[in-house]
C-alpha cells in the first residue's frame, strides 16, 4: 500500500504540477544512471517552485541569475533524460525571457526603457529604475540560454513537426517553429545591439566596451566571464545554423568572432604548478585587472566547456585539464578557517565575489569531465553544504554529470577513451623518492588504466590494471632514470599514453662547498637552543659553535635531551642536513632525533626522524636527506636520546637548501614595472636541451611555485615577465635543469611590488602601517581580523597623502591576519603573516 501511495503521488505530480509530494530536489546516489525518482523530483520542483516573473530582471536574473540558470538546468536534464516534459518547461522559461525583452515588454510592465544609447534597445536591463538603463556584452548569456533550447530541439528531428502542448494563439507552434523563433530573435539582437557596439573590427574582432555615451568601462576589453557569456551565444547559434544549413555567411561571421576571442583568452593565461604538482592556469578577471575570482571562474569554465564540446575551435581535452586543476587545487584545495574555500584562483581570499564559497557552484560540475577523480568529492561537498534540495541549477548539473559518467561506462559506447593526463611525478622530475606513488588525471570514457613501468624506455613492463588514479612503486634504485606510461581502456579499445620519465634521488650526497649560498645555516639567521652550553673563560662550548664549520669546536651540555633551532631570514626548502660528532666519548653522541620545520615558530611539521644512529668516528660528518618540497623559516632539531651518557655533545649542525652542480647563471635581476615584475638573467656554457624554470613565492606561500619554463637557446640573455605578482614582497629564483637531470638554482631575488591602483598594509618591527601610492579622492576604512575572524582594528581616513606611511597604532604578534581595505569603489583583502 505504501508503494502504491508513493506511485500515486508521483502520478499526481506529473499530471498536476501544482501538486507536490516533497517539492525538493533529490540525488539518490552518485553512480549509475539518473533514477526515475530523481527525474520526477526535478520536474515537480521546477513546476512548483521555479516560476519567474517575466517583468523582472533585477540583478541580471535572466542573464546569470536563477531564472536564466533554470533554462540551463532544464536543458542539461533534457540532455540527460530525453524527457519531453522537461523540454516543455525549458520552452516555458524561454518564452518568459523573450517576452521580458525591453523592446517587447510594454511600458506599463517596465519595458520600453531608454538605455545609454538613447534608444529603446532589445536588451534585458538589470535595473529598471536606472536612467538611462544599462546593458552590455553580458546580454549574450540570455541569448545563449534561449538558443540552447533551439539547439536541443534541432538535434532531435523526431519532434520538429509536433505541436508544443498547452500553447494557444500566437504561441501555438511546432517545436521547430519555436526553435527558429529563438534563433531569429537572437540574431536580431546580435545584429542590432552586439555587433555594432561590442566587436572591435579593427582589433581582430575582440570584445570591447564602446566609449561615450557608454560609461561602463569605456573602451576597455570585456572581462573574461562576460566575454564567455557572449561567446556562448555565438557558439550555440553557429551550431544551430550548421544543423539547418541555412546561413553560411553568418556561420563565417560568428566563427571569425569566436576564434580570435578564444585565442585571446588563452594567450592571457599563465601556466603554473599547484602545490600538488599539477599544471594550473592563472589569469586576471580582465586585462589590467586583479586576479580572477572563484565566482567568475565558474562562467569561464562554462564557456570553455561549451566551446570545447563543439569540437570546432581547436580546444582539446588536455587544454582544459589545467583549468579543472585550477579550481580543484587552488580553490577547493585551500579551505579557509570559516568553512569556505579560496575566493580567488591563486588560492587567496578577498571579499564580495572573491570571498569564497562553502559549496561547488553549478558550472563547476562540467569539470569532472576533465578530472573524473573529483566528481564524488565535489558532489559530497554540496551534499554536506545542503545544496541539493533547493539548488536546481547545481543539482541538475550534478545529475547530468552522473549520467555522462554512466553512459561513458556502458559497453556499447561508441568512443575510444581519452588519454590520461597530468602524470605525476612530472616528466623529467629529479630527486624522486625510492618509494613513489604514480598519479594521473583521469579521462573520459575510460573503464580502467594499465600501468607500464621500467628503466628501459623501449621495454616497459606492465605493472597492473586499476580503476583508480594512483599506483605505488617501491624499492627503486637510487640515481636511476625510470620511465612510465598510463594506457586508458574501454570496450572500444585502448589509448596508449605518453611516456614520462623521472630520476630517483641519491643516498650518497655530494656536499657542496659549505661556504656557498646553499648552506641555509650560513645565510645570516639566528641559532638558539633549549639550554646554554658551557661558557667559562676560554672554554666556549655553546650552541653557536654548531654552525661555525669547525668540528674542533662543539656544543656540550649536561642534559640527555634537548633541542636547537635555526631561524632563517627567508623561508628555504631543505634538501639535506649535517650532524657531526665531537671529540669526546661516543656515549655523548646524539642517537635519536626528530627534525621539524615551521613558518611561525608555533606550528611544527616533522621533516625527518632518526633512531639508533651511530657515529663510528670522532669529528665524523653524517648527512641525512630530506625529501622536502615546502620552504620553512624555522628548523628545529629535537634530540630525544643520546648514546647513554648524562651529557650531549656534537660539533656541527648545518642545513643545506639544495644538492646541485655548480651554478652557471649570473646577473639575475628582477624589478617592478607598470605591467608586473620583469626578470632578466645571463647564462653561459649552456648544454643542449637545457630548461630554465622561473619560480616565485610570496609572504603568503610556504614554498616556491613554478611560474613558467623557458627552453635555453644559443643566446646568453633571458627575460621573463610575471604579470600577476602579489602586492608586497615577491621572491624569485631561476632553476636550471640540464638534460642529465642536474639542477642549479640561482640566488633568491626579492622585489617589493605596488601598483598605482592599490592601497596596502605592511608590518615593520611589529607595527602595522598603511600606505597609499595613488592619488585618491575617496574615503577609506581599514579593518584587521585574526585568523579566527575576530576584529582587532577599525580605522577611517579621508584623502590620505600620496606615499605617506600611516602607523595604525597596533603591534602585531607572530601569526596570520586578514586585512580589508574598503574604498568607495573597491574592497582589497589580503593575508598578512607576521614572523
TrEMBL record:
Superkingdom as given in the UniProt entry: Bacteria
Protein's UniProt keywords contain Signal: yes
Protein name, as recorded: T9SS type A sorting domain-containing protein
UniProt keyword annotations, A-Z: Signal
InterPro entries membership: Galactose-bd-like_sf, Ig-like_fold, Secre_tail
Organism from which the protein derives: Pseudopedobacter beijingensis
Signal sequence interval, chain numbering: 1-22
Keyword Protein biosynthesis: no
